UniProtKB/TrEMBL annotation:
GO biological process terms held by the UniProt record: glutathione metabolic process
PANTHER family per UniProt: GLUTATHIONE S TRANSFERASE D10, ISOFORM A-RELATED
Protein name: Glutathione S-transferase
Top-level division of the source organism's lineage: Bacteria
Subunit description: Homodimer.
Organism listed in the record: Tritonibacter scottomollicae (Epibacterium scottomollicae)
One Pfam short name: GST_N_3
UniProt keyword annotation of Aminoacyl-tRNA synthetase present: no
CDD domains reported for this sequence: GST_C_family, GST_N_family
Length: 221
């Protein structure tokens, strides 16, 4: 069985979990306190970052590389389109969420409110929280624009781009940092994607010291 070293609210870990679950790959989840830089974990990934996946006799790091490997070795059901321009758009949007969205929103909200407490780094920086709360509005508006022109974020079919976005938003939703009333089309998209069987284990996550809002696991929120 595959083994994933992860942190429950990490969007990068959640993206890998969604890919594994969508392709029905059984995985053992092992919570990793990566910030303690345990010697065994550093041997698994000297970068001291999660996720780390043990699969096919290999240890894999970096969520984008992991997801591409899963896609190449388990192509059914596909999370990448067939043509090069379509794949380019998926990769662009995965990078958008894992880089730009993460830098402007996730690191300012989730990391300030949750990660600092977990790692003992102190209290949230209110200026960062305000910055993240402002930036998420822009990103939801951009998603709304995309979804006004497409069935899914990158095109007519659900792809890894949708999982990347949902991984970040579900982590933020756990701490009530998403205004779902800002865009009906984004709310409908999220309801559709979180109703998939692949999302079940994520919606069951419980993080010590943090209680999710009542709508978190509600498919008709």
């Amino acid at each position: 069985m595959a083994r994933l070293y992860h942190v429950p609210l990490s969007p990068f870990c959640r993206k890998v979990r969604l890919s594994l679950a969508e392709k029905k790959i059984e995985v053992e989840l092992v919570e990793e306190r990566y910030w303690e830089k345990d010697a065994d974990f550093l041997r698994r990934n000297p970068a001291a970052k999660v996720p780390v996946l043990r699969l096919d006799g290999m240890l894999m790091a970096e969520s984008a590389a992991i997801c591409e490997y899963i896609e190449e070795t388990r192509p059914d059901p596909s999370l990448m389109p067939k043509t090069a321009p379509e794949r380019l758009e998926v990769r662009r949007l995965v990078s958008w969420f894992d880089d730009k969205f993460h830098s402007e929103v996730t690191s300012k909200l989730l990391y300030e409110r949750v990660n600092k407490k977990m790692t003992g780094e102190g209290y949230p920086d209110s200026s960062n929280v305000k910055s993240g709360a402002k930036a998420i509005k822009y990103h939801i508006d951009y998603m709304s624009w995309l979804l006004d022109h497409r069935r899914w974020l990158a095109g007519d079919n659900m792809t890894l781009a949708d999982f990347a976005a949902a991984a970040h938003l579900s982590s933020l939703d756990y701490i009530s940092d998403v205004d779902w009333n800002r865009s009906a089309v984004v709310k409908d998209w999220y309801a559709k994607i979180k109703s998939r069987p692949a999302f079940r284990s994520i919606l069951a996550d419980q993080v010590s010291g943090f209680r999710p809002p009542s709508h978190y696991a509600d498919l008709d929120f």
